[in-house]
């Protein structure tokens, strides 16, 4: 397995508050990596450093390196726009744009210059199929995406992210706002998608991490406590704090 | 005793409501009753002529339309641009709150002051002639805060999740604003426009010194640099200088109809946008 993202001594501050402390990690290609830990432990912050969404926070300051395919994404010559097309993101709350389903999916391709009805039609269908929502949407592509249920909206957002053909998919608690059936669908989808994409998923749901991920990273108070194969983390954690957390003694 | 106060309060409030509605009905009623008889086809389609001893308000209707056009064409890019800058780009909070405070203060300034400043600046300093252009520019200063405030308010209601979604797909900032933020702020921008058009239609004091009193029929380009009275200024002229209250009431009725039309269209537009948004 090849490393796709590698962080070295990654420190992050929001103003005077340090949110991440020297994170060293190697995330593998075509795997699902789950980031777990109690609220405020820095797992979402860590996720957002990977596609530089933290740039939007004025007071945010970052030290260390994040290597993506061997290039430091915080280096000088990085095109953030291009980076974000190669590392897609799905948010905690489904956030389709208030446009038709078709326009939502076509947003990214159009942005990157794809023109022509036929080509766009193809991309839209392929993305919706990949996100396992084609059968539910194929007859109402012109309808507003906001009219769909929460779970459907989230899969539309996944399709939207896939439409620009990223290499990595970041998922920030993508099922925390969904019902169990929709959650199941998204999990199944993630397992299917990892054949083609590397997935990094933040989750509060321990069962979810153990069900779908290959690797698990446990964060606590901004530090990466333990990182390893999911089986090992859940069955034989090396650190007592990991053990305490996954066995539900705190969190 | 408690019951008595309740009944008393209820009666007082009901009375207040009746007085408010009554006054409004009285105003509308008087204007319609007195103006209706004098609205003729001739009045609406000719200009005032001393030779024929006839009165027509077509030039004033046109001037009102001209000045709305000039003002909106200039104020919209400036106002929307300023609002977008303030909400999407400006990072200095002190500056933003200072500018917001300044724009809010501008809305409270009596319009005659805008007229005075407009006259000094546009006609005397910049050398423009009294006319639609000088008047329009003065009105730009006056309605700019309305446009900025409404656009800003509307921009602020666009959820950040839309912005994040667009940026996460690799959108640049301006592309994100153009495709996701502005379209969703459209209702606020339109409301601002309609309020502004209403204010322009009803404005007289700021135009007395800047747009002037001219009653001649002119083409758009001639009117830009020639003294041209809008409907409200014409109302003042006919009432005050000609002592012709019949024409004034007729103009008042036309103005009321325009206001009514504007308000109705505002309600329809916002209603339509809401329907579309809810899918």
Tell me about this structure.
The complex is a heterodimer of chains A (251) and B (279). Chain A is of the alpha/beta class. Chain A has a domain at 3-95 and 167-246: 3-Layer(aba) Sandwich (Rossmann fold). In chain A, 36% of the residues lie in helices and 27% in strands. Chain A has ten helices and ten strands. Chain A has helices at residues 43-49, 80-86, 101-111, 117-130, 134-137, 150-162, 180-193, 206-212, 230-235, 240-246, and strands at 3-14, 17-28, 32-36, 60-68, 71-72, 87-90, 168-172, 198-202, 215-220, 223-229. In chain A, strands 6-7-8-3-9-10 form a six-stranded mixed β-sheet, sandwiched between helices. In chain A, strands 2-1-4-5 form a four-stranded antiparallel β-sheet, with helices on one face. In chain A, helix 3 packs parallel to helix 6. The model of chain A has no long low-confidence stretch (mean pLDDT 91). With 279 residues, chain B is mainly α. Chain B folds into two domains: 2-36; 44-277, Orthogonal Bundle (MetI-like fold), CATH 1.10.3720. Chain B has helices at 2-36, 41-45, 58-89, 93-107, 111-125, 132-156, 160-168, 173-184, 186-202, 205-208, 220-224, 231-240, 245-277; strands spanning 47-49, 54-57. A two-stranded antiparallel ribbon of chain B has the order 1-2. In chain B, helix 9 (186-202) runs antiparallel to helix 13. The longest helix of chain B is centred in the N-terminal third of the chain and has 35 residues, at 2-36. Chain A binds chain B through residues 51, 53, 56, 58, 81-85, 88-89, 91, 93, 95-98, 107-108, 111-112, 143-144, 146-147, 157, 160-161, 164, and chain B through 91, 159, 161-162, 164-172, 175, 179-180, 184, 276-279.
